[in-house]
Amino acid sequence: METTKAEGPGTAPPDAITRKAATSTGTGPAAGATTRGRLAHVDALRGFALLGVLVVNIGYLASAHHGSGAEDPAFGAPLDDAAGWLVAVFFEAKFFLLFSFLFGYAFTLQLDSAARSGARFGPRFLRRLAGLFVLGALHAVLLFPGDILTTYAVLGLVLFAVRGIAPRTAIRTAVVLLAATAALYALLALGVHLTGTGGVDPGAAAEAARTTEALRGSPGEVVREHLSQLPDVVYLLVFFQAPAALAAFLLGLAAGRRRVMADLDRHRRTLVRLQWAGFTVGLLGAVVYAHASLVRPGGAYQILALGVDVVTAPLLTAAYAVTVLRLARGRFGRSVVAALGPVGSVTLTGYLTQSLVCALLFTGYGAGLTGRLSPSEVLAVALALFAVQAVAARWWLRGHRYGPLEWLLRAWTTLSWPPLRRRAEPGV
Are 371 and 210 in contact (CB under 8 A)? Predict the structure, then answer.
């Protein structure tokens, strides 16, 4: 399960440096793509990440069989299998890493902004984390148990504690963290292989059917089902997503310290190498992960594949990020930024809106379509929903400085009422 955020996890405060960088590329506010004071190509990257998160999360929202290891007997057509492989190879376990990286990157910008303004950074950042935790807890109970905002809030405390770490040390620590996590998966896989345990739970299909009926039930039944899923979700977050997210935090912090996003040309050689590594080693690891998840779930092989994914998914994620950033700064940069930038600047609102719409579609809150749409149809719904979000975000930002939830979180963080409406400015 994947997740995102904005105005905290991945949103940078306005400053003169980012404003100059955005306008000098020809993809800044004059293109109608982002609000003033932001790096336009970074908002485009956030928008791309939001799309990837939706494609992954909607699978869990649309089907109780998804991720259970049990095959859904209703959907086995070749097109459904192709959709499953597409999502597993290119999307799963990739995009929460991208948002985690952006969280760490934005953290450095927030530190710099506080230093320039003389504001007390600590209390504000801690209030921001508290706000994210509350929003995440409500999100997990009411809409989608696979929330990661609460995890980000907790890991944000770690990031705050090590805020003075040197970039090189941050990178080394991230690599060690990923390698250690992968090694633990390898040891666990070896133990399962030697003992002959593992395999798909024989009751997984029956449990998926029960969950499907509960999610189609009344709002009270939906909430009770979400609460019953939380222990398993916490286990997944602690032992899989949290270590990788923390490593991505540290990599984002290092990138922010070195101003990688603001000066891509200076780091061009390294970025090209990341693309080569990601689209070779990273993609190979993604295929292994998908094969284990879809063809041989539940045993030592899948556990080992998770370990492989821990060390290779960051490479593919980095390749995605570099590709989007280079496109946003290249020949078609204005089009890329215009399409992805607005929704990328309101990702907290976008993320929670995605869960709300999906809850209305798939649970007893609304249409109760859980288990009734094929994987290919679910993928089409995701793409249509994101397209609507992109248009809505562009419209909203014509007259507003922040997304609704970004504004609410900012008000809590600063203990003030920041202006929501945006006055007309020349060239905007």
Answer: no
